[in-house]
Structure formats: structure tokens, C-alpha cells
């Protein structure tokens, strides 16, 4: 194991054991290096690495602190993973979304209050009668965030958000090229809300599966129809 990797593991272990908690300030560099049996250089590199993924917060002139460790903060790095995978590989991310989003929607059907469901209906009602593709995509992104939050599971909500947001350009492309994409999206969103309002998790799961699978099916067909030498659409 590389020295820097060893330093990262040791700091992580301190957090996992509870020696350091969210918001805690790390000991002085010299003291921590001695405590962990590390050189100050390797410790410094580990701190830089952990700050990049939002585990640590380096405050100039103040010290280094453990962040809140909230799922939304830690999973922000997932967007980099999605952004670096293009072409056919993005289908694997859509497959993950197809597994997770129906589960979140089923959970939301059991946990969302009548007020929460009404907020979803109000959100859909605010979409213009003839929305532009960009307007529809922005509405779509927020709609799915609301449903994911409604699951009551912060980890699941953050994970879905990191998988959903970076597909913005692909959704725009779909809206511009697929027949009836706008009408289909609006219709499926309403079906999802009705399923959540019924408080029947199996029905909600099915409605979400149909919706997400439609995007995956379209992208798979679009990518498969291209010539090997052609430019594959930007699907991130």
C-alpha cells in the first residue's frame, strides 16, 4: 500500500471508530503524524485527498475539520464518475437508476404525506402548456428530486441525484429527437404521482420502472443505430 493510501486509511479509521466526528477539528499536524506513525508529508497528501472528496475541510489559518459527512456532500464525487463515462457505458448508470428509482418511489408512496403529494401535483401544474425542452428537463430533474426526498432515505436520495443530474444533456437531446417525448414525460410523471397518492408501493414501483426504462430503451436504440465511425451522442 502506498504511503499516502495508508495515511488516508488511518484517518478514515479514526472517523469510523468515532475518534473524530462530524465538525471535529483534527489535531495539530505534527501531533497527528506522530500519533498515526506517519510522515508529515504523507499526512499532508492524505488530507488533500480527503478534502477533495469532502471528508475533510481545510480552513486556511484555522485548521482542518471533519465535514458534516452528509450523504449529499460525500456523494457529490459520483458526478465526476458519471461525467467521465460516455457513450455506451452510460447505459450502465441508467441501469442502476432503473433499479434504485422505482425502489425510492415505492418508499415515497408509503412515506409522503397528502401535503407532499400535493406539492408534486403543484410542481407538475406549473409546467407550461407547451414547454420548451429545457423547461421540461428542469422540471423533470426537480420532480425526481422531490420523489427521491419523499423516500425519506437521505443516502438513496443523494445517490439518485448524483445519477440523475449529469444526464441533463441526454434528456435535452431526447426531447429534441424523440417523437412525443414531451407528452410522454408529462403523462408518465402524472402516473407516478397518482401511484404515490394511492399509497400502493407496487403500483408506484411499476410506474417509475416504466418511466426510467423508457429513457434507457431510447438511449440504447439511439446508440445502437449509429455507425461505428460516427460520433456517439453526449449522454452524460
From TrEMBL:
Residues 1-69 form the HTH gntR-type domain. GO terms for molecular function: DNA binding; DNA-binding transcription factor activity. Keywords: DNA-binding, Transcription, Transcription regulation. SMART domains: FCD, HTH_GNTR. InterPro entries: GntR_C (IPR011711), TF_FadR/GntR_C (IPR008920), Tscrpt_reg_HTH_GntR (IPR000524), WH-like_DNA-bd_sf (IPR036388), WH_DNA-bd_sf (IPR036390). It comes from Knoellia koreensis. It holds the Pfam family GntR. This is FadR family transcriptional regulator. It comes from the Bacteria.
Amino acid at each position: 500500500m502506498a504511503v499516502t493510501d495508508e495515511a488516508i486509511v488511518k484517518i478514515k479509521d479514526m472517523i469510523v471508530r468515532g475518534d473524530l466526528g462530524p465538525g471535529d477539528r483534527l489535531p495539530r499536524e505534527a501531533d497527528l503524524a506522530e500519533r498515526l506513525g506517519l510522515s508529515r508529508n504523507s499526512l499532508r497528501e492524505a488530507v488533500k485527498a480527503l478534502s477533495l472528496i469532502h471528508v475533510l475541510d481545510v480552513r486556511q489559518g484555522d485548521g482542518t475539520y471533519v465535514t458534516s459527512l452528509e450523504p449529499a456532500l460525500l456523494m457529490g464525487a459520483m458526478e465526476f464518475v458519471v461525467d467521465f463515462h460516455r457513450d455506451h457505458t452510460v447505459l450502465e448508470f441508467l441501469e442502476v437508476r432503473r433499479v434504485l428509482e422505482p425502489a425510492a418511489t415505492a418508499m415515497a408512496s408509503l412515506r409522503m404525506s397528502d401535503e407532499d403529494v400535493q406539492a408534486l401535483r403543484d410542481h407538475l401544474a406549473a409546467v407550461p402548456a407547451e414547454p420548451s425542452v429545457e423547461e421540461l428537463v428542469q422540471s423533470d430533474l426537480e420532480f425526481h428530486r422531490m420523489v427521491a426526498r419523499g423516500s425519506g432515505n437521505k443516502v438513496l436520495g443523494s445517490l439518485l441525484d448524483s445519477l440523475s443530474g449529469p444526464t441533463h444533456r441526454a434528456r435535452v437531446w431526447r426531447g429534441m429527437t424523440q417523437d412525443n417525448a414531451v407528452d410522454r414525460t408529462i403523462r408518465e410523471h402524472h402516473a407516478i404521482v397518482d401511484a404515490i397518492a394511492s399509497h400502493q408501493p407496487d403500483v408506484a414501483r411499476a410506474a417509475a420502472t416504466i418511466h426510467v426504462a423508457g429513457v434507457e430503451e431510447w438511449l440504447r436504440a439511439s446508440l445502437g443505430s449509429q455507425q461505428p465511425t460516427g460520433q456517439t451522442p453526449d449522454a452524460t
